[in-house]
Design a protein that fits this description.
Layout: H1 7-19, E1 26-29, E2 34-35, E3 42-46, H2 49-57, H3 61-70, E4 73-77, H4 79-83, H5 88-97, H6 101-114, H7 139-150, H8 154-161, H9 179-193, E5 201-205, H10 211-220, E6 223-228, H11 231-243, E7 250-254, E8 265-271, H12 282-291, E9 293-306, H13 320-325, E10 332-333, H14 334-343, E11 347-353, H15 355-371, H16 373-380, H17 382-400, E12 405-413, H18 427-432
Parallel strand pairs: 1-3, 5-6, 5-8, 6-7, 8-9, 9-10
Antiparallel strand pairs: 1-2, 3-4, 9-12, 11-12
Helix pairs in contact: 1-6, 2-3, 3-17, 9-10, 12-14, 15-17, 16-17
Protein name: Cyclopropane-fatty-acyl-phospholipid synthase
Organism: Rhodococcus triatomae
Domain Polyketide synthase-like methyltransferase: 156-415
């Protein structure tokens, strides 16, 4: 550590005191001072005292995120090295549970004040969603949440998603050499689990830019309907369908799942959608999808999952994800999803975790975004570009360790009147029954 008498040394010592661990980070401050390991792959610059003031007014992840997104705090070098401090979350929790926790936070606040971090709370970055009132998951509020996240420019998303424009976990099968290969493999896995055949009718709920319905129509001969709340996704998805010459077999609608009224479908895919539904409406969601399946029809629900049980009293503390990325999003344990699907009348036939696959997917997205970062700033502005880089990098680490985040594909069926599912008894049977329209069996 150098210049320990300057602002940088005091800042680093304060953060280390709060988290109870030495931080492998090089810190620079507005006064020119530096502190921390000189060989650290991650360098953090506090460009002004306002960065500290943001943390002082919100002494949690939201304060640090506001400092970074606003540009008051800069990160150079390896962002993973900064975020991937071993057991950081657990250490913070243990430290705050001690009797000295409040005194530690008081010391930190006193240091920030002595460094000049005084004054009213700074205005949040412009990309932060604030002041939301009323019930969660009404149609209007869900539409606003989707607009906040998805309607920021199709070209921006293309920078890191690549040509497939798939914004969910890929499937890194042995033959998948690129992100494009892995996303095609994921769509194929979904199609085979659903048992798609030529002439079947498929519904894709939360269809994004149309990649799943395009794959299913092109490789499995189905007639497909995709629904989304995003106007920008709708426009591009329809254009992709027309360019593929599939307008007679694929329809893209701007529609809420609660407005569906054209049952039955032979199969339904819900990929990265149920996280937006909310635990209070998940059983209703499952019931609506059940009612739109023919007897014997299959549903595949692909969703991020928490590995912790739902708390008896949900936290109302604002988080970076809720304010900046997925307003009103709810990451539920897979057990809650299975319970909701069963209560909605569906029979669970299979679950599969793709946790490691999502870590690889997110790493690929981060690499692509960093390669095109200047273009991203031109398209959506520096605040939003920083938001997505922080969100994607932190999420990658969240999936790389067990007991943090996971992602599951849950396959369910609507049994017929006799109780039969119409499915093969084994997973191998599902793939063996495929008529050969798709790729090689994964």
């Amino acid at each position: 550590m150098s210049d320990v008498g300057g602002a940088a040394g005091k800042i680093l010592a304060t953060f280390e005191d709060v988290v109870g661990i030495a931080l492998p980070v090089r810190v620079r401050a507005w006064d020119g001072s530096q502190a921390g390991p000189t060989d650290s792959p991650a360098r953090v610059t506090f460009r002004n005292r306002r960065a500290l003031r943001r943390v002082l007014w919100s002494p949690n992840e939201l304060g640090v995120a506001r400092a970074y997104v606003s540009g008051d705090l800069e990160v150079d070098g390896d962002i993973y090295a900064l975020l991937d401090v071993p057991d950081l979350v657990e250490r913070i929790g243990a430290h705050r549970s001690r009797e000295t926790g409040l005194r530690t936070l008081a010391r930190a606040g006193g240091t920030f004040v002595r460094l000049g971090a005084v004054g009213p709370p700074p205005k949040p970055p412009t990309v932060e969603m604030r002041g939301r009132r009323g019930l969660r998951h009404t149609r209007a509020r869900d539409a606003a949440s989707v607009t906040h996240h998805y309607d920021v420019g199709n070209e921006f998303y293309r920078l890191f998603l690549g040509p497939t424009m798939v914004y969910s976990c890929a499937y890194w099968s042995p033959g998948a050499a690129t992100l494009e290969d892995a996303q095609a493999a994921k769509n194929e896995v979904v199609c085979r689990k659903l048992g798609l055949r030529p002439g079947m009718r498929l519904l894709d709920v939360g269809c994004g830019w149309g990649s799943m319905v395009l794959h299913a129509a092109r490789h499995h001969g189905v007639d497909a309907v995709g629904i989304t709340l995003s106007g920008e996704q709708l426009e591009l998805a329809r254009r992709r369908v027309a360019d593929a010459g599939l307008s007679d077999r694929v329809e893209i609608r701007q529609q809420d799942y609660r407005e569906l009224d054209d049952a039955p479908y032979d199969a339904i895919s819900s990929i990265g959608m149920s996280e937006h539904v909310g635990v209070s409406r998940l059983v209703d969601y499952a019931g609506i999808l059940h009612d739109h399946l023919r007897p014997g029809g299959r549903l595949l629900n692909h969703a991020i999952a928490s590995v912790k049980p739902l708390p008896d009293t949900p936290s109302r503390a604002p988080s970076f994800i809720d304010r900046y990325v997925f307003p009103d999003g709810e990451i539920l344990p897979v057990s809650a999803v299975v319970d909701a699907l069963e209560r909605g009348g569906l029979e669970i036939r299979d679950t599969e975790s793709l946790r490691e696959h999502y870590a690889l997917t997110l790493r690929a997205w981060v690499a692509s975004l960093r390669e095109s970062y200047d273009r991203a700033v031109d398209l959506v502005g520096a605040e939003r570009a920083r938001t997505w880089l922080l969100y994607l990098a932190a999420s990658a680490l969240g999936f790389e360790y067990p007991y943090r985040l996971s992602v599951h594909q849950v396959l369910a069926v609507r049994p017929d009147a006799s109780g039969a599912s119409g499915m093969a008894r084994t997973r191998d049977g599902w793939y063996r029954d495929d008529p050969g329209h798709g790729r090689d069996r994964p």
